[in-house]
Structures are given as C-alpha cells and as structure tokens.
Amino acid sequence: MLELKHVGYVAEDDTEILSDVSLSINERFVAITGPNGGGKSTLAKLISGIYMPTSGQILLDGIDITNMSITDRANLGISYAFQQPVRFKGLRVRDLLRLAAGKDTTLAQACNYLSEVGLCARDYIDRELNDSLSGGELKRIEIAMVLARGTKLSVFDEPEAGIDLWSFQNLIRVFEKMYEETRGNILIISHQERILSIADKIVVIRDGRVDRVGSRDEILPGLLKSADAGNTTCDILTQKAMS
Amino acid sequence: MDEIRMNLLKEVADLDALPVGAYNIRENGKAAGRNTTANIDIVTKTDKPGIDIYIAPGTKKESVHIPVIISQTGLTDLVYNDFYIGEDADVVIIAGCGIHNCGGELSQHDGIHTFWLGKNSHIRYVEKHYGEGDGSKNVMNPTTIVHLDEGASMEMETTQIAGIDDTDRRTEGDLKAGAKLEVREKILTNGVQNAKTYFNVDLNGEGCSANVVSRSVARENSTQFFDSRLNGNAPCAGHSECDSIIMENGRVTACPSLTANNIDASLIHEAAIGKIAGEQLMKLMTLGLTEKEAEEQIVNGFLK
Ligand SMILES: Nc1ncnc2c1ncn2[C@@H]1O[C@H](COP(=O)(O)OP(=O)(O)OP(=O)(O)O)[C@@H](O)[C@H]1O
Ligand SMILES: [Mg+2]
User: Fold this and answer.
1) Which of A212, B179, B202, B243 is least buried, going by the fewest C-beta atoms within 10 A?
2) Domains and CATH numbers, chain A
3) Relative to the CA of A42, which ligand 1 atom is closest?
4) Are residues B169 and B299 in the same domain?
5) Which is nearest to A117 in space by CA: A134, A92, A142, A96?
6) pTM of the model
7) Contact B208, B175 (CB under 8 A)
8) Does B4 touch chain A (CB under 8 A)?
C-alpha cells in the first residue's frame, strides 16, 4: 500500500506544481486522470523518487520513503514506466530487460515479456534502444520492463499513448495478468475511457491538487459528462470563429 | 611470463591458442611465430622492420592474425606492415597491440599499416590497442593508410579501451569509383591519458562512399582530440560522426571538416559531446541500479 500525506512539490524556479496531495493506493487498479499539465507525471516522479517532495510524507507499506533514493525505492518494490521512454545508444532490449528482471533471467523469460506487450521477441531482443525504434515500440518495451520487474507497486504513465487501437484490449489484459502474478497495486495515469473503466479507483488531478477521488462508478460518469461539456465550449468557439 | 603473453593475445586478438589460418606474431620487436596458407603469404621486409602480406585474388573465407605484444619495459617498436589484397578477395584481418609494462620506463609501439585493396575486394579489419601494468607510460601511435580500388570495400573496427597513456592515431584513405569505407572507432580514456585521432578520406571516384563513426568516453582528467576530414572530389557520399561522453573532468575537442570539390558530393557530419543524460541514469536507477552501476552500464553499452 502506498500512502501520500499532504505531499507538495515546488520546482526549482519556485512554481508550485503539486500541493497538499493526500491519497492512499491499495486497490488493484488505480487510475489517475485530469487535464494536461495538472501534475500527474510530477506525482509519479515523486512516488518513484525522481523528484523529492518539498513537503509531506510518502509511505510504502508503512515505511517512510519520503527521502529515499530512486534506487532504494526501486529495490523496495516501486516500478515506473515513463511517459516518455528514454533512448540509450548501445544498450539493447535484452540488456534492459535483464537489468529489469535481475541477473538470473533467462533469454526465454525476457522474450516472454516482449511477447506479452505484442512485440515479436525474435525481431526486437537484439535491437538497440536508440532512435531507430518507433514511439509505440519504445512505449511497449517500457511497459515490458515494468512487467519484468513484477514489483508490488507499478506506475504506468500514459501507457496507451502511441499504442494502436488493435492492441488496446491486449494492454488491458497485460495489466490484468500482471495483477494475477504480483497481487500488487497498479497505478495507471491515463486519459482513456477504456482504461478508466477498468479502474477500481479513479483520482482526478487538476491544477496540482486532488480534484476528486472515488470508485469508478462515482467518478467516471461525471468525467464523461464534463468531456461532453468540453465539446460544447469548443462548438461555441468554432461558431464564433466562423462568423 | 607466458601467462602475460597469453593474456595480451587474448585482449588484443581474442586468442586462447595459436590462430587458425595465416598469422604472424611479433613479440618485443621480434618475429615470434608465423603461418602462411596456399592463398596468403607473409614475407619479412628487408629494407625496414615489418612484413608484407599478400592475399591472392579471389581468396575467400580466410583470416590473417597479426598481433603485436610487448612485455619488455623501455622498448620502442616501429613496424611497417603492408597488405596487398587481390581482386575479389574477401578476408578478415585481425591486428592489435598489447603492452604489458611493469618497468619504470616508456614502452611504445608505432605501427604503420598500409592496405592496397584490389578491385571488388572486401576486407574486415579489426584492431585493438590495449595496455596494462604499472610501468611509467604506454604509448601507441597506429597509422592506417588505405587505398581502395574500384568497387573495393573495407570495414575497419578500431578499439582502444584501456591502458594507453598517449596515442596519436591516424587513418587516411583514398577511394576510387564505387569503393566503400566504413570505420568504427571506440576510445575510452581515463586518468591523465591523452588520445588524438585524425581521419582524412579522399573520395575520388564516382559513387564511392565513406562512413566514419567515432564513439568515445573521456573520464577523470583525460583529454581527447578528434579531427576528421572528408574530401568529396567526385559524386560521392561521405558521413562522419563523433559522439562523446565526458565524465568527471574529461575534455573532448571535435574538429570535423568537410570539403566538397564536386557539385554532386554529399557530405554530412554529426558531432555530439556531453555528459550522460540524467534521464538515462534515472531510468536505470528505477530498475534498481545505483548511480555508479547505471553509469557503468551506459558507458559499456555505448562502447560495445
Ligand atoms: N521541473 C519543473 N520545473 C518547472 N515546471 C515543471 C517542472 N516539471 C513539471 N512542470 C510543470 O508542472 C506542471 C505539471 O506537469 P506534469 O508533467 O506533472 O503534468 P501532467 O499532468 O503529467 O500532464 P500531461 O497530461 O500533459 O502529461 C506543468 O505545468 C509543467 O509545465
Ligand atoms: Mg504527464
């Protein structure tokens, strides 16, 4: 279980990005959604230790990890699939999967993780994680690395971005299977209704604050309605522009 | 002594035993073993130190190993090796120099390798430079000169990963029509080491191409200087790339130059120097590596 207590983050240039975020994450799937620039990725970085909170406290299974390094948190059981995967000149897919899964992983196991995210292992295992990979391919490899780690908390930052519609259902199956194996908590940052609709809990982050939290049934209908409202505003603007 | 010798051979030529096929081993400035084959002849030069290597036209699937090892401190070794590759031949040449310096003096090896590639021949040339021991200084100055006849192609892989305190590396090439030169260089320097590397390639024939790629890592207080010149004298394609990681107080200068003397010459240079990207370190740390381990992985991968 992950708990955030009054967590705030002020960036180096003194802008406040997150304030007073209190949340507990102990469900199978928790989805975080909300407008662009709301602070979702910042929250994921605070959880994984890439950023250190400037106020508040973060606990993992009751252990205070607020000031722990990225490495220590990773070893305690936190994994993070980045919104923008990182490219490495010279490191191959198999190298990263081995680093993620641990030394004793066999090539066959590494290949399995790739197959799960819909990549043919034979074609990808020896590819370098460089500019030659497409955005969607990199994104899938990023997800495979988190699968390979199989930790008690997995954070996915917009995993659906760049993944084609064909694979969407598979992606959801990947999360379900992952839960079967780890029995951990899976935190998914997403803008996609289809992902939100599998969440046990939905958190809406807006302007650096927790706007709403609740079960899917409590939150999702409201979100869909406000999305419609969004379209109306757009219609008004377009009509104005045309006249 | 024998163990040192075996280790040097392993480091520079990946050899655990005497190689199969043609070879010539030079140890402490003297010949220490040679084998020739029906298609590959090796002849000692009479006017200066070194050997001439003749590869008969049409030779395929053969290899030549010519490692040089130095285990005597204070030795300065200068050697000229000339390679004559017959038309349509296709072979692998593995060179390399290892120094084990345990004395207090300078050990130096200057190898001047000249290649004449006949029409439509192809070679893969692999050379590795390696130093070890706690002697005062290991110096290596390899010069490689390649002449590519029509349709000939050469892939050159040159690596210097450890133990060379000072190096001045020169690679020169001239290419006739349809010839192709690929160079991949990898250099790692640390301590107060210094590496200079120069490339000069004349693209003289129609449709010839050259691709020179250098990847390097400069650690601690080491310095590197990279100077590459591509001269397009005909309709041709040239690409050079210098990609460096600097760590601690490492310093790198990249001085690429491109000259087009023909309207249809197309030349490109890319250079990038910088420290390891923070996000790369962070990604590996989220997989459980420490910052040091992450650096290690990134550097090893980069130079692999
Ligand atoms: N290091 C930083 N310094 C200054 N501002 C930052 C920094 N990191 C993020 N921000 C700003 O904080 C806000 C929140 O960014 P964040 O990336 O967390 O948004 P997000 O909710 O993930 O958005 P999106 O849906 O577009 O991915 C943005 O306005 C962003 O520009
Ligand atoms: Mg984001």
Assistant:
1) A212
2) 2-85+152-242 (3.40.50.300)
3) 18
4) yes
5) A142
6) 0.86
7) yes
8) no
